């Protein structure tokens, strides 16, 4: 049996995905001591988990240092890494939308969009035939329209509460997001039987 | 942007140090002997080509091209692949002399990096092209050649996955309701987005028989063991028969253990009209190479003949090839003073004739003798006594 390295995002997604693997019948310890460990070895199953920042998972997988990974669709769309997208795990479901102050239109000359997702935002506005200027921010995106930095923001929305609390309204639904199982193209071939088996077992668990 | 420091190179450009250089030369030599013995002639094309000819026709994305402007204002590109320049030279000249042509190359190609390091913007590529033969035997020859070539490098764990654009297009056309749907699905397969494929199929509101067939196809199609597995999805057509024949030939050559079928394989370039394949080997995170039939490219250059071939990336090959110790012994001959030079030279030359690697070095030119000596298997000093002898 070949050895599998799986890159996992730290935090809640790790726990949910880990539970799914247990449900799929993988022999994993119920409790994993996470603390500050970056690598978890499961010798019984010949699996090694590496714990990474969510946006780094596709990078590990593309370079082949991890065979598989679990990554949000938002990250995949933003980074456009060369990986195979195998399965929608349907966990941490949310969507990407544009939002802004209520009853406003975008500046006609140079509409400005604040976002953590410059590529997704750029592609979306290109598709609808609108030339915009992107302002890249790393957090608290909702601030941008409130203080006049941007006309719209493009960000992830799960319940819409953050938008509401900051007096913003949603304008356009851009795309749905959930966690995906991804694979390195070479691993997908060279460890094909193991990966296929894992995918078919996981597929039965996905609601 | 910070200013450029003296040690910096453009993004993705790499120096080749002696160890890598030697390994590359070895690969070149093995590959050259192997391919020449199979009747392939090596050729070389210029590093610079016109954007309007080779640049536009190349399968490489426009954003990856290095572009320059010549003194007449024409846009030039650093060749991003070898297949396109070879198609150019074959259609304009070589095909008039010999047909079919069997050509081989070992050359550097250039692809600009936008995002990050970790991959080179200039790298060696080795490959073959069979031009002017549209038969299935040419495709079989290409696949057999790539398998045997990889084996010649001492690599055991590798896989060739083969698909056919004609088979895939037939399936996509038959089970969708419009051209747009088929194109959308094909695009998702180029990106290897199987999740997106399933979602798209569900969103099309196809008749249940069609959508079920597509969903089942996508769950199975990357792992077909035999050619019979695909037959239930496709009506009898030329592409399917072609693949059946190709698989038979590979079986007959006893190479089927290295081959897997993947009918979702698709290229973003529409001139890959026939069979196409990818080469994977354990030890590199990226595909080793790819190939296929590209008759459409020849048509683009105005000649209606068949063409097929493969290219392997030398940088990835080096990652995968098992390393072996260097064989030739290195000797340093150090001489003290001018009077001993002739003696030292004679000594060095006699070792060189024995096939050893000999460095001749005067002691006067050395700063740190011990540090220098560490680079050799053996150090010999030429002293006064040698002269007396």
Automatic annotation (TrEMBL), chain A:
<dbReference type="Pfam" id="PF01634">
    <property type="entry name" value="HisG"/>
</dbReference>
<dbReference type="InterPro" id="IPR013820">
    <property type="entry name" value="ATP_PRibTrfase_cat"/>
</dbReference>
<comment type="similarity">
    <text>Belongs to the ATP phosphoribosyltransferase family. Short subfamily.</text>
</comment>
<dbReference type="GO" id="GO:0005524">
    <property type="term" value="F:ATP binding"/>
</dbReference>
<keyword id="KW-0028">Amino-acid biosynthesis</keyword>
<keyword id="KW-0067">ATP-binding</keyword>
<dbReference type="GO" id="GO:0000105">
    <property type="term" value="P:L-histidine biosynthetic process"/>
</dbReference>
<feature type="domain" description="ATP phosphoribosyltransferase catalytic">
    <location>
        <begin position="53"/>
        <end position="203"/>
    </location>
</feature>
<keyword id="KW-0963">Cytoplasm</keyword>
<dbReference type="InterPro" id="IPR001348">
    <property type="entry name" value="ATP_PRibTrfase_HisG"/>
</dbReference>
<comment type="function">
    <text>Catalyzes the condensation of ATP and 5-phosphoribose 1-diphosphate to form N'-(5'-phosphoribosyl)-ATP (PR-ATP). Has a crucial role in the pathway because the rate of histidine biosynthesis seems to be controlled primarily by regulation of HisG enzymatic activity.</text>
</comment>
<dbReference type="InterPro" id="IPR018198">
    <property type="entry name" value="ATP_PRibTrfase_CS"/>
</dbReference>
<keyword id="KW-0368">Histidine biosynthesis</keyword>
<keyword id="KW-0808">Transferase</keyword>
<comment type="pathway">
    <text>Amino-acid biosynthesis; L-histidine biosynthesis; L-histidine from 5-phospho-alpha-D-ribose 1-diphosphate: step 1/9.</text>
</comment>
<dbReference type="GO" id="GO:0003879">
    <property type="term" value="F:ATP phosphoribosyltransferase activity"/>
</dbReference>
<protein>
    <recommendedName>
        <fullName>ATP phosphoribosyltransferase</fullName>
        <ecNumber>2.4.2.17</ecNumber>
    </recommendedName>
</protein>
<keyword id="KW-0328">Glycosyltransferase</keyword>
<comment type="subunit">
    <text>Heteromultimer composed of HisG and HisZ subunits.</text>
</comment>
<keyword id="KW-0547">Nucleotide-binding</keyword>
<dbReference type="GO" id="GO:0005737">
    <property type="term" value="C:cytoplasm"/>
</dbReference>
<dbReference type="InterPro" id="IPR024893">
    <property type="entry name" value="ATP_PRibTrfase_HisG_short"/>
</dbReference>
UniProtKB/TrEMBL annotation, chain B:
<dbReference type="GO" id="GO:0000105">
    <property type="term" value="P:L-histidine biosynthetic process"/>
</dbReference>
<dbReference type="GO" id="GO:0005737">
    <property type="term" value="C:cytoplasm"/>
</dbReference>
<protein>
    <recommendedName>
        <fullName>ATP phosphoribosyltransferase regulatory subunit</fullName>
    </recommendedName>
</protein>
<feature type="domain" description="Aminoacyl-transfer RNA synthetases class-II family profile">
    <location>
        <begin position="25"/>
        <end position="336"/>
    </location>
</feature>
<dbReference type="InterPro" id="IPR006195">
    <property type="entry name" value="aa-tRNA-synth_II"/>
</dbReference>
<dbReference type="InterPro" id="IPR004517">
    <property type="entry name" value="HisZ"/>
</dbReference>
<comment type="similarity">
    <text>Belongs to the class-II aminoacyl-tRNA synthetase family. HisZ subfamily.</text>
</comment>
<keyword id="KW-0368">Histidine biosynthesis</keyword>
<dbReference type="GO" id="GO:0004821">
    <property type="term" value="F:histidine-tRNA ligase activity"/>
</dbReference>
<feature type="binding site">
    <location>
        <begin position="81"/>
        <end position="83"/>
    </location>
    <ligand>
        <name>L-histidine</name>
    </ligand>
</feature>
<dbReference type="GO" id="GO:0140096">
    <property type="term" value="F:catalytic activity, acting on a protein"/>
</dbReference>
<feature type="binding site">
    <location>
        <position position="129"/>
    </location>
    <ligand>
        <name>L-histidine</name>
    </ligand>
</feature>
<keyword id="KW-0328">Glycosyltransferase</keyword>
<dbReference type="InterPro" id="IPR041715">
    <property type="entry name" value="HisRS-like_core"/>
</dbReference>
<comment type="subunit">
    <text>Heteromultimer composed of HisG and HisZ subunits.</text>
</comment>
<dbReference type="Pfam" id="PF13393">
    <property type="entry name" value="tRNA-synt_His"/>
</dbReference>
<keyword id="KW-0028">Amino-acid biosynthesis</keyword>
<comment type="pathway">
    <text>Amino-acid biosynthesis; L-histidine biosynthesis; L-histidine from 5-phospho-alpha-D-ribose 1-diphosphate: step 1/9.</text>
</comment>
<keyword id="KW-0963">Cytoplasm</keyword>
<dbReference type="InterPro" id="IPR053846">
    <property type="entry name" value="HisZ-C"/>
</dbReference>
<dbReference type="InterPro" id="IPR045864">
    <property type="entry name" value="aa-tRNA-synth_II/BPL/LPL"/>
</dbReference>
<feature type="binding site">
    <location>
        <position position="125"/>
    </location>
    <ligand>
        <name>L-histidine</name>
    </ligand>
</feature>
